[in-house]
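ugh ok fine here u go
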Amino acid sequence: MHYDVFGLGNALVDVVYHDVTQLFLKEHDIDKGVMTLLDHNRFNLLLDALGSKPSIQSGGGSAANSMIALAQLGGSAFYACRVGDDPAGHFYRKDLLESGVATSVIDQGRIGETGRCLVMVTPDADRTLNTYLGITSEFSLSDVPESELKKARYIYLEGYLLAQKGGVVAVGNACQLAGEAKNLDELKQALEKFDGCPLKKTATNLVFGDGAEDAKVVFIGEGPGAEEDR
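structure:
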């Protein structure tokens, strides 16, 4: 089988609570409307404080969500990630497969706790995300099946991986393989000779991608804001 897109990213089970009051957020020192990374103890403390069962539980992670959307639109997707041998990990793998996304994720015999994202929705419909990465923070080259990667037309990399030590290696390997592809103007002249990023030392341009180029499906991310490329 060949894939339209091969995705790499974090595996997070979204645990959603509706009607969380702003008083609750204030009492537990939670910044409203943003995503905050938590350690294991803090995450479980908040779960205990919320008490009741969540309204919804679903597989998440931004790249995983994109792969699921692609599958729902009729495309073929593969997702590489890391989960633990625990109820959340078993749920995550099952959710991916039932959503039509292929994966080689191992949820048996792997010691570690699957990442989870606590999604607290206040009455004004604002979402506050508190995330415990768990074993996904150990994502590495061993989680990227090269044989499947080579079957994909495109690779979709989750930017959050670049903040993780093992993720940098995994992403680097994927980029090297993607770099073997001949075109899109030699991948816009290797992203105008790259330079390792930090917004290319205050940028001023290279917004690569403009038009169809025979694409059947294109996902477009957030555009640069006024302060991002003056």
